[in-house]
Amino acid sequence: MIEPGPTDSAAVSAETLEQLLEQARKVGAQAYAPYSNYQVGAALLSRSGRVYVGCNVENATYGATICAERSAVVQMVAAGDREIVAVAVATPKDPLGLPCGICRQVLVEFAGPDCVVLASTPGARHTTTLGALLPEPFTLR
User: Fold this and answer.
1) Catalytic option among 22, 69, 109, 136
2) Is there a contact between 26 and 41 (Cβ–Cβ < 8 Å)?
3) Could you say which architecture CATH assigns to the domain 9-133?
4) Band of the pLDDT at 95, cuts 50, 70, 90?
């Protein structure tokens, strides 16, 4: 846990984002990426204050590959959490790894438009919101 108790996207501190990013970097080192050689790690902060991590796992068929962000969402759902307030994505090399379209849509299922998204490589960093990444998402809500 990074922060005790309920967490709101607007209240996510720079220190908390750095801690998320560090966890994303660590789990990214475990990625299985023999085809792209592009390891990605993700860390999600839930409203409960718990952190869930995931890494990309590639497959020879490519379509069966799972991205780091969706891997972390699966961990969160399996643990019984349902609300994301911040996401950190880390890659050890360029290009910067913002969530892909599928991941953006999956994140929207569990996060509001103000959810903070931080992407980082050793030489670049970009902070935005989920709403900026996917301004008109498809939802059933």
Assistant:
1) 69
2) yes
3) 3-Layer(aba) Sandwich (3.40)
4) very high
Sequence-distant (≥ 6) Cβ neighbours of residue 86 within 8 angstroms: 7, 9, 12, 16, 17, 20, 44, 45, 115, 116, 117, 118
pLDDT at 9: 74
Please say whether the beta carbons of 2 and 16 come within 8 A: yes
Determine the Cα–Cα distance for residues 122 and 23; give it in Å rounded to an integer.
15
Ranges of each domain in the chain:
9-133
Q: What is the DSSP letter of 57?
A: B
Phi (first) and psi of residue 54, to 5 degrees: -160, 160
CA–centroid distance for 36 within its chain? 19
Find how far residue 72's CA is from the centre of its chain: 7
Q: Is the pLDDT of residue 141 over 90?
A: no
Are 109 and 99 spatial neighbours (Cβ–Cβ below 8 Å)?
no
3 is catalytic: no
